[in-house]
Amino acid sequence: MNLKQLSHMLALSQTTVSRALNGYPEVNEETRRRVIDAAKRHGYRPNPSARRLATGKTGMIGYVLPTGAAVDIDPHFVEFLSGLGDYARSHELDLVLSPADADDQETTYRRIVANRQVDAVYISSPRPADRRVALVSTLGIPFIVHGRSEGLDFDYPFTDIDNEGAFHEAARLLVQLGHRRLALINGDGRETFAIHRERGVRRALAASGLALGEGDVCSLAMTEENGYRAARRLLEQSDAPTAIACSSLIMALGVVRAVRDLGLTIPGDLSLIAHDDVFPWLKPENFSVPLSTTRSSIRLAGARIAERLAARISGLEEGARGEVWPVDLVIRGSVAGAPP
Amino acid sequence: MNLKQLSHMLALSQTTVSRALNGYPEVNEETRRRVIDAAKRHGYRPNPSARRLATGKTGMIGYVLPTGAAVDIDPHFVEFLSGLGDYARSHELDLVLSPADADDQETTYRRIVANRQVDAVYISSPRPADRRVALVSTLGIPFIVHGRSEGLDFDYPFTDIDNEGAFHEAARLLVQLGHRRLALINGDGRETFAIHRERGVRRALAASGLALGEGDVCSLAMTEENGYRAARRLLEQSDAPTAIACSSLIMALGVVRAVRDLGLTIPGDLSLIAHDDVFPWLKPENFSVPLSTTRSSIRLAGARIAERLAARISGLEEGARGEVWPVDLVIRGSVAGAPP
DNA sequence: AGAGTCTTCCAAAGCGCTTTGGTCTTTGCA
DNA sequence: TGCAAAGACCAAAGCGCTTTGGAAGACTCT
């Protein structure tokens, strides 16, 4: 059942039927009712391929997915997707993942924009002076950045959490508890979130005349193994840190294992705070010693970004407004006063 | 730059240019070269929206993503996606995720097929007599099932791993080591993979005149917490199992925690084997006691399924061939002879 | 009554491709 | 030499929608 057939049975032109269905004003309400009714009765659904050829609108939002044999997709992605999908569903939006060579995403961005394959895109895991942000901005497609870039000479719309504030608070708490040597087990140091977290820690330490030592900040892919290795290296020093801030729950698993392997205890020998993106399958309160965390649901962020993308597509949102969400600091058993 | 312009500058008809570019035979090789050359020089790329309206081909594969506030996307999905994306990239395929109400995926499947939004779909986490498989099959869109359904009265193409065989081997090993009471901490019991794994364990036990007791199989969402709870319940019995087979590494984390909380040890008091889907961020060899596993890379499965989908789209593959991959049993420190 | 303004509808022209159904040369063969 | 077959190309008709540029009729106003 296509528009032609439908308009034929209604003895109306395609123009009128199309307008009736799309809510244009120049059609009699009585006629509109008739049309809508007939459309529903015959299960008419406009062919999206035809519509997108005519209008350029796709009803899809895009994400360029970096791939490659050596590239691992962040498990956080799933949670983000849950939120995004949840919102997208209720607004009849689909998400198209365009896999790209991790080292050449530009080609893919250009393609999906030139081909008008999606109405909007989002960018995740941005880095300082992120080229994708600059690119997408000049290409002129609606977009939202999940996270922030830095050092770009223009504004852009983003939704981020207050990573610096979160880690500042975490570090400040540790300092208040008497810790004088902290370490930071961070994610990939090229990403803005990691930079912000380090900045937060440094700022908190500086406020008390302290600092992060040379080897006291580790920037690594967020795996359990890297958490273990980093912790092990830190704790085997003669002058080991008495507190660690850690960028992910998964790395924290490794830290806990290292602590145990070394015959130490939490929080007796080491205080630990990690960032929690809120996974359903791994919860900080279930660590052998309940883990203190800075918490922010990445799922909520996904939903929010879908919402903003939808708003931008329909023209309800414009401009370069960035929003920064506060992060909760949740104290549990893994922090205590510094050992004497 | 569109076809019209390109053909105009070449002083050829759109027909010929289109045919030249699409490799049809009725065009002079010399002409074809000219056309291809000019297309490249001017960066001509056929508009996919126009092409899909004309041909119905989209260059996209689809996945219906169950969503909802209470629905969690499996973290395995990310790894699967890595493999899928890696293959898709090299074949210029995109993946469209159509979020659907977890309780009504049928509407979405019907929509994406009726609208010709994708060329093929895959289905994951199938259950016995899975309605999606039946639906997609009657709808007539190319598809592959990742995993297997059961009790369907027709054949369908799938790629699965030998879950039954894997858990049969695992259980057999444990029995050989003298274990007489086993337990199974399984995933969601409504899914086929979980059924197969249970079957595998039961078969191995039966071969030695043993059986799984009433409460010795737990079917739960695969979270750390559920692993902990299940293990705790099992191990607190007076007649506790001396070996556990576990369906996921994440649950195994919980099992290990329970064992420790109870003051027991692995493998002294409990032998443990878990299934490993091969995550980059959590490895069985890094468990405090290296974990024996049944191992099968879900990432490879993703790539394979993309490959088969592409083959089906282009007509290279047809029929209902199912393939079952063997699973490696990797012995590490977490298994030992049964305690006396 | 005539001019202007709405209201309501329509025919037809896109959107940019593929594909059908030719036409006009060349070539092959008896 | 004549005729069929093959080769190389084209015009035009889709694909199914949206949107432009009217047009016809009803209404208002002077």
Automatic annotation (TrEMBL), chains A, B:
PROSITE patterns: HTH_LACI_2. SUPFAM superfamilies: lambda repressor-like DNA-binding domains, Periplasmic binding protein-like I. CDD domains: HTH_LacI, PBP1_AglR-like. Keywords: DNA-binding, Transcription, Transcription regulation. It comes from the Bacteria. Pfam families: LacI, Peripla_BP_3. One of its GO terms (molecular function) is DNA-binding transcription factor activity. InterPro entries: HTH_LacI (IPR000843), LacI/GalR-like_sensor (IPR046335), Lambda_DNA-bd_dom_sf (IPR010982), Peripla_BP_I (IPR028082). Residues 1-55 form the HTH lacI-type domain. This is Transcriptional regulator, LacI family.
